[in-house]
Write a structure and sequence with these properties.
The complex is a heterodimer of chains A (319) and B (357).
Chain A: H1 9-49, H2 71-76, H3 97-129, H4 136-143, H5 148-171, H6 181-205, H7 209-217, H8 222-251, H9 254-259, H10 267-273, E1 275-276, E2 280-281, H11 283-312
Antiparallel strand pairs in A: 1-2
Helix pairs in contact in A: 1-11, 3-6, 3-8, 3-10, 4-6, 6-8, 7-8, 8-11, 10-11
Chain B: E1 4-13, E2 16-26, E3 31-35, H1 42-50, E4 57-62, E5 65-66, E6 77-80, H2 92-102, H3 107-120, H4 136-148, E7 154-158, H5 166-183, E8 186-191, H6 194-200, E9 203-208, E10 211-216, H7 218-223, H8 228-233, E11 240-249, E12 252-257, E13 260-263, E14 276-281, E15 286-288, E16 294-303, E17 308-314, E18 318-324, E19 335-340, E20 346-349
Parallel strand pairs in B: 3-8, 3-9, 6-7, 7-8
Antiparallel strand pairs in B: 1-2, 1-4, 4-5, 9-10, 11-12, 11-14, 12-13, 14-20, 15-19, 16-17, 16-19, 17-18
Helix pairs in contact in B: 2-3, 2-4, 3-4
The chains are: A mainly alpha (319), B alpha+beta (357).
């Protein structure tokens, strides 16, 4: 018989523990380094938002604000005209966050709801009736792989020139989509629809079709089946999808920049507008806005995390 | 009146013929079981009766009404699904009440009937629970209660016992049969399990490749299978099949195969002499007897308790299975002699598989 090992079982156990310990330390070091790399810009943004203008670009950098101030925040949240104490020369004609915040909430919420509603029904028909054929679901996802910059200019042409001209020639009124809420909501709905369809497909596919058959056998019509059986079972999936799409819209910059000015301003565009002729970029207020934009994303992200767990452990339906 | 007539029913999916022109009649109050291997068209047929599939051609008549164009909910049927299809987000009570709510029954009536159905199936204590809190057998009863609560004249069941473990499945068979006795409704039941079909059915439809192979009572199908397919499908272990030739001489007709020379019953039609045929014989009709003419060598034995199965080799490497009393002393390598009970031999056309005797 071959000799297995010269180690006693205790020695083997100790060796395994040593190896596992070393591996765990290496793993954590790598993860910590990566986390630092990711989190550092966020840290820097938050710190800058509490610095006065003199500290924004000093060298060597101040890791913490030497003289922490809320001036940047009181600027961006100002309701009235800035009084003398706040009106640095640089920010005389500064903007406040309120218009941008209101526009962003309105546009992102409406567009996300519209995409969710449309996308859920589209996903249902793709899942149940194979609308568009076998590979349609993949085709939909490839549509989203087109970079926004590719479509931004064409959409701008349609919004600013072609659609107003054609509608006024045909119907006698100018349909204005450029720099309007409806225009931005429309493009956000369309660009996020593929994500909604894709995500809702995975949830709707999970609902066994025999549940719908059973309900139909008991006399339920198609709409009753969707309302009473399918939607309750994919509700948590709809929450996840809504939050995901909302975050996408909330952080969108390029299309909002191209298709609006000066009326409609989302937060990302507003952030970019915070600069002055004399001082250049106003890093402090920008960092304050950046921090304010990030907070809802972080909160929604945490919510999504909980719902994702629920959403994906959802295969508990008896198959 | 819940007689179901099926006339020239066809269902094709693209180029694939799932059901190719079947005719049958299910009598009022009958327990009819459709049985066959996967893909034989039995579930498709059931789904066409239910209205979940639309026939490509042909007619389905329930009572005196052609139901082809009626919605599933308008046909007065109840269905139990293979996966039971309990609504996971509703309590057992809500599951059972669902059909009544759709029909807009008054609340008190719903309550009365749900309670009655739950009592009938001994699941009253489950009513406030969710389906995922129920065991397999309990879920089965909930699915049945949900179906009986609407008083359908016809029950359709698509392999409802297949998700249960072996012991529970046997218990539920008895229970379903008793339910059928009590309700006196028409049951149409689909399964691929021949034992389920044998034990529960008033009559059995055996299907294969979209066609009906045989329709009859369980014993008729077991004792006189119409085709070699049916013969092989029913009975455990599978019937032994031997290929050979019919020879006629002065003493009558005999079946000849390597190592086998078996007298055949007189009831055979004339004109089969010289023909290639398949002889089928069930293991209980392979008789092991020291004075018998044919010899074999035991390969393995399978003791089942009440009987023992002996797999043995004869002739040129062919194998047969015999059912012998459990007291047998045969073991691997032992020699035995055997013959077939002549009246229990089934003869099939070697080419088409049709029964000859």
């Amino acid at each position: 018989m071959a000799v297995l090992s010269t180690l006693t079982p205790e020695q083997a156990t100790a060796r395994r523990a040593r190896r596992e310990g070393r591996r765990r330390i290496l793993r954590h070091m790598a993860l910590l380094a990566w986390t630092g790399f990711i989190v550092f810009p966020v840290y820097w943004m938050v710190m800058t938002s509490f610095k006065d203008s003199g500290e924004w670009v000093t060298w060597p950098p101040n890791w913490f604000p030497r003289d922490p101030t809320l001036l940047n925040y009181s600027q961006i949240f100002a309701f009235a005209h800035l009084d003398a104490s706040q009106a640095r020369q640089a920010t005389e004609q500064s903007f406040t966050i309120w218009k941008g915040l209101g526009d962003a909430v309105l546009v992102c919420t409406t567009a996300s709801f519209a995409a969710l509603l449309l996308g859920t029904f589209l996903a249902y028909s793709i899942s149940r009736f194979n609308v568009g054929g076998k590979y349609f679901r993949h085709t939909i996802l490839t549509i989203r792989m087109i970079p926004p910059i590719v479509i931004a200019i064409s959409i701008l042409m349609y919004y600013a020139i072609i659609i107003p001209y054609v509608t006024s020639a045909l119907f006698g009124f100018r349909l204005k989509l450029f720099d309007t809420y409806i225009g931005l909501i429309l493009i956000y709905t369309v660009t996020t629809l593929p994500f909604v369809i894709w995500m809702m497909l995975t949830f709707i596919d999970e609902v066994p079709y025999t549940l719908e058959h059973a309900a139909r056998m008991m006399g339920a019509g198609r709409m009753t089946v969707i309302w009473k059986i399918v939607l309750p079972l994919v509700a948590s999936g709809m929450v996840v999808t809504f939050l995901f799409v909302f975050i996408l819209n909330w952080a969108e910059f390029l299309l909002a920049l191209t298709l609006t000015h000066p009326e409609v301003t989302t937060l990302t565009v507003l952030l970019n507008k915070f600069q002055s002729a004399s001082e250049g970029r106003l890093y402090g207020p920008q960092a304050a806005i950046g921090t304010m934009i990030t907070i809802p994303v972080v909160i929604l992200g945490m919510l999504i995390q909980n719902h994702l767990v629920k959403g994906f452990s959802f295969g508990t339906i008896r198959k | 009146m819940a007689r179901i007539q099926i006339k020239d029913l066809v269902k094709t999916f693209g180029a694939y013929n799932a059901v190719s022109g079947i005719n049958m009649e299910i009598k009022d109050g009958e327990f009819m079981i459709m049985v066959g291997p996967s893909g034989c068209g039995k579930t498709t047929t059931l789904n066409m009766i239910s209205g979940l599939e639309t026939p490509t051609s042909g007619h389905i008549i329930i009572g005196n009404t052609v139901v082809n164009d009626l919605e599933p909910g308008e046909r007065g049927l109840g269905m139990v699904f293979q996966d039971l299809a309990l609504f996971p987000h509703m309590t057992v009570y809500e599951n059972i009440a669902f059909g009544l709510r759709i029909k807009k029954e008054p609340r008190a009536e719903i309550d009365r009937r749900v309670t009655a159905a739950a009592e009938a199936l001994h699941i009253k204590s489950l009513l406030p629970k969710l389906p995922r809190q129920c065991s397999g057998g309990e879920s089965q009863r909930v699915a049945l209660a949900r179906t009986i609560v609407t008083n359908p004249a016809v029950f359709l069941m698509d392999e409802p016992l297949s998700s249960l473990d072996a012991k529970l499945r046997v218990d539920m068979r008895t229970e379903l049969k008793r339910l059928h006795e009590r309700l006196k409704a028409t049951f149409v039941y689909v399964t691929h399990d021949q034992a389920e079909a044998m034990t529960m059915a008033d009559s059995i439809v055996v299907m294969s490749k979209g066609k009906i192979e045989q329709l009859g009572t369980p014993l008729a199908i077991y004792n006189a299978p119409a085709t070699q397919f049916v013969a092989g499908f029913f009975g455990t272990p599978t019937m032994n099949f031997l290929e050979g030739i019919v020879e006629a001489n002065g003493r009558g007709r005999r079946f000849k195969a390597p190592g086998i020379d078996q007298p055949l019953p007189d009831s055979l039609p004339t004109g089969i002499a010289g023909k290639k045929i398949t002889l089928g014989v069930r293991s209980e009709h392979v008789l092991v007897d020291a004075s018998a003419p044919h010899a074999g060598t035991v390969l393995i034995t399978e003791p089942l308790g009440d009987t023992t199965l002996v797999h043995f080799e004869y002739g040129q490497g062919k194998t047969l299975v015999a059912k012998v009393p459990p007291t047998t002393t045969l073991g691997p390598g032992a020699m035995l002699n055997f013959h077939f009970a002549p009246q229990a031999c089934h003869l099939f056309d070697a080419a088409g598989g049709a029964r000859l005797n």
